[in-house]
Amino acid sequence: MSSEENKNRIGGKQPEISFLLNEIIGNNNTSFKVIGLLRNRILHMEDLSTGNRFKLSHEDGLYKSLIQAKQNKLDVVNDNKIEIPTENNQKTIKR
Q: Domain limits of the chain?
């Protein structure tokens, strides 16, 4: 991970479940954009459907829902790979 990515990450102990600046996450038919990374895992967010801006703490239910939405998205991406055996090795191809 580059130092720039490291600066723009915030979240728990699992680096793949963190938030990036300007990242858009969908949850319950609404898209949220990370517009700022603050101290103590607090995010400055924007609801893209209403334009409403707000601070989101890691203790909020929405924060946990967005983490879960990101995890589900990662699971879907991993499930969209198929293994094709060849003579010498196996190749993984995205659908």
A: 1-66
